[in-house]
Amino acid sequence: MKIVAPAGNMERFYSAISATADEIYLGLKGFGARRNAENFTVEELKQAIDYAHLRGSRIFLTLNTIMTNREIELLYPTLKDLYNYGLDAIIVQDLGYAEYLHKNFPSIEIHGSTQMTVANYHEINYLKELGFKRIVLPRELSFEEIKEIRKNTDMELEVFVSGSLCISFSGNCYMSSFIGGRSGNRGMCAQPCRKEYKTSCGEKSYFLSPKDQLYGLDEIKKLQEIGVESIKVEGRMKDVSYVYETVSYFRNLINGIDKEENTPKLFNRGYSKGYFYDNDKTIMNRDYSYNMGEKIGEVVGKSIKLDEDVVSGDGITFVSKDYKNLGGTYINKIAYKNEKLVLTFPEGTKYIFRNYNKRLNDEISKKIKNTDKKLEINFDFTAKLNEKLILKTYLEDKNGNRILNLEEISETLTQKAQKRAISEEDIKEKLTEIGDSEFTVKNIKIDIDENIFIPLSELKNLKRNAVEKFREKILSYFRRDLDSELKENNQEYFKLEIEKDEPKDLEIRVIVSNEEQKNFLENIKNEYNIKEIYYRTYDIAKQSMLGQHNLDNKLASNLYELLENKNSDVILNWNMNIVNSYTISVLEKIEKLESFIVSPEINFSKIRELGKTRLKKALLIYSKLKGMTIDIDIADNKNEVITNKENDKFNIIKNEYGTEIFLDKPLNIINIMEDIKKLNVDIVVLEFTTETIEDIKKVLKQLKTRKGEYREYNYKRGVY
Description:
With 720 residues, the chain is α/β, with parallel strands linked by helices. Helix content is 28%, strand content 26%. It has 21 helices and 37 strands. The protein has an eight-stranded parallel barrel with strand order 1-2-3-4-5-6-7-11, surrounded by five helices. Helix 7 packs parallel to helix 9. The mean pLDDT is 93.
């Protein structure tokens, strides 16, 4: 089982490799789902590729965001450069971008990001048909669900085992986007889940903030037993020590060693096993949402009772009984009075947290400096009397087969020994001394005549030349020549020719959430020229919940509902994040798909650029937009209204779909219906969720009068 580690910059990259990570995921500056990370220039990325390949590791580039037509095509020269240099895989969210990459870069692996929210084997096997090599599963899946998926697909599976949890399903969180235009689907999430909210009862808490996730030996064994290929460590924004220690921890667990968990001593806002066990109710931490550190003591009377030793250089945070941060300090020196530690703390302090562990960080720094991942090479050495020395260097695959053979032959002949003959032990000793190299010698096979003499300097030169040439052979093995590949396969650069579309008469369609809404609209649909009424459906098709999806419903909100749908005229919901012509081109091939709702994250000008398609394009013109889809009950089985510090209100609804959070103020662009025609869409959609019949009547009246509330959210500003 491989360990996939994060790298937000070069320093963290070296730390991950040093800790023996098998695969590293990292981002280009300006792209990917962690655009706020420092990330890599093209030259740094090339440096990382060579460094990793010489140590038996691989590099994955994260381009796991929704992308516009222009962005997809703009990146081509950069990706061609990295492809030719030896980039191993690209992690994507966007279906269209995946096809673009697959056609233009035929021998690179395409991995599906957790942002795709692919949560069942039906969807996974469809993606395999499209050329995907691996899927990063949603964090919300239990072990039993992962096990069922594993039984029904041979796609490579990657599972998150540590790090931050999004409270919303990844790829289906729009809070940051709709509040301020900073989209999680564009790598710019402002993390509204980590903010404090006030409930309708006046209670203040971090209502949407989960603890981090950290699996232990039992969980890793279970994943190993069912054949999960890779485990993923989250943390491109985390520091060097965190990356090293967490990767090292999981390396021990994979090897069956139950190592102490030091990760919580380096970054801590509480930990749980996430969704691994169905009955785990300990995911949330409403007390605080940031890295408070590890709790090491509390105030008793006028004294501090510490559960852990502290040393000079530790970082200390003072916390009140309701977990408010009262300030902190670095311990510059340890002072004692009457054999008791003296530590001054602010009034109101209840708990002492350590957010910087000097001793542990020093230990990790020392390990990073003194360790390096090595690639195991093998030597076959042959020395026959009066013949040249032969040193064969090679790697072995997991089945013991030889790969990347290289033969180095000496300049001089061996001689008969006049005094002491060279021994096999002498040869092994010299060949294993390869100094400050990326390699370590695993096996040496020796075939020599008796009583021969070999100058040690000749042996040393032979070994040095072999190692240097083998180094170059490894690097050249990963290099590609895209132009030659395409020529051999009679392929050309794939780019969609987008045909300009024209304005057309608009159909009106409606999505409802309950039977009362449906019955009311059925009775008046002709009066308002409503062509279709759909029931709202589940955003996510979790493996264990597939039976709840109504495949007779013409509205599909995920790939499962689309692929398995029993109708021939299906419409795809807006949460599928369709923002470019390349994705539309992929979906056009699904015959039963009739139309799709464009993502409300993009602006009007981008919608106009989507071009002509056999599918009907639909635009959401009214909706109390959904901000999050959540897999656990965060409101104790009741509906709740929460308010942020900016006084934005959000409705938390617990229903058959799980827990959903809706913006209180609806998207509404009904007033500009004539302008909407110029966007070249075919359909406009009204989506009703929590609206009463009276609310719906007001919206329908606006269809006729074009007078009323107007709120366009991202349609004007777009997203970052």
